[in-house]
């Protein structure tokens, strides 16, 4: 492998493609792996994104998986490490962002890093340390109802401090606006004060570019995907269309949606309202009869020749809470996730080669069910969501995948995704 500029560790699969898409857009050649590779990749790329499914597992397991990914990336020669989490900073007071970040710092022998989930293009901004989703603080957004990582505080200094052993500080928007030298000077001040992790404000892409320049040479960056847009210039790399090249699509089209986010609920509703064929998974029926998912998948597969089909468990927050009360939080999540993954596999066996998956946990289950271990990153559909191409033993060849974070994408995202892919033909 040629010089590997950036070695990235993502805590879920949609977050990994979000980051990879921004790196490709900046001109880097990127491969995303599913889990830690067992050996060298054997191809020349500028960045590797190792996708883990570590966001909501116990913190010690997340640390172990992240350290294994870092060890592989260092062996591959990565010049800088990047720990990627969601732009809504999905975590709990126990982690996993703080524990993983501090473990990576220790492994790299560094005493300082930043934390910045900002992605202004997708409405995620950080101002005076507070994370905003659109026009409202995070704790007033749909994230307050997240079934696994409900966010009840928008102040990232407090959130990060609660899950970190070291001190957490702030680089505010005025310093960021003053440019890279001012940002580095603030880093030095915080270091002298004993701060080990600095939350960094960013309210525009210009802020991210200034921050990116200031991060040149920093051993570890922790951030959402937005910070990635400012890093390529540190290696003299400029945007280039050939970085996003994918093979032409073939086969049937389908959508598998497990996310219950506000954005995904709107996308599911829009698809159904436009006349799309949709098949709703009933968790209670699934709990009583494991064959429910297979029967539903077969019905969906029989409709593939008529156009894209949607299979989904997407529901409003109260319905999700009621299900969790009946079945238990862990059992409900595992039951639905496994069923959606099995349905996706069935659809691919029936000829689907263009597959949109909505939701981080769902995406992780689906790519594992399809036996995918590496993704080539292509063009963006909406900010943070690129098309990817992968070899799948279930498909017997190439399958195109769009792994969408629940909170991302426009209302008509599903139709837009297939239109964008058709343009590659």
* Helical residue percent band: 25-40%
Q: What is the domain total for the residues?
A: 2
Shape: globular
Judged by helices, strands and strand pairing, the structural class is: alpha/beta
Question: CATH superfamily name of the largest domain?
Answer: Putative sugar-binding, N-terminal domain
Architecture per CATH nomenclature, i.e. the level-2 architecture of the largest domain? 3-Layer(aba) Sandwich
Q: What is the spatial order of strands in the main beta sheet?
A: 9-10-5-11-4-1-3-2-16-17-18-15-12-14-13
- Largest sheet at a glance? 15 strands, mixed
CATH topology (level 3) name of the largest domain: Rossmann fold
- Give a count of the beta strands, DSSP E runs of length 2 or more: 18
Q: Please count the helical segments.
A: 14
Low-confidence stretches: none
Any idea what the radius of gyration is? 21 Å
Mean pLDDT: 93
What share of residues are in beta strands? Answer: 15-25%
Task: Just give the CATH class of the largest domain.
Answer: Alpha Beta
For the termini, the CA-CA separation is 30 Å
Explain what the structure shows.
With 425 residues, the chain is an alpha/beta fold. The chain has 2 domains: 6-239, Rossmann fold; 245-422, Four-carbon acid sugar kinase, nucleotide binding domain (Molybdenum Cofactor Biosythetic Enzyme, Chain A, 3-Layer(aba) Sandwich), CATH 3.40.980.20. 37% of the residues lie in helices and 22% in strands. It is built from 14 helices and 18 strands. It has helices at residues 13-25, 59-75, 97-108, 156-162, 173-177, 180-192, 205-214, 262-273, 283-288, 291-301, 317-327, 329-349, 360-369, 413-422; strands at residues 6-10, 30-34, 47-51, 80-84, 113-116, 124-127, 130-133, 136-137, 167-171, 195-200, 220-223, 252-257, 277-280, 309-312, 352-358, 374-382, 385-392, 397-404. The strands form 2 sheets. The protein has a 15-stranded mixed sheet, with helices on both faces. Strands 6-7-8 form a 3-stranded antiparallel sheet, with no helix packed on it. Helix 2 runs parallel beside helix 3, helix 10 (291-301) packs parallel to helix 12 and helix 12 packs across helix 13.
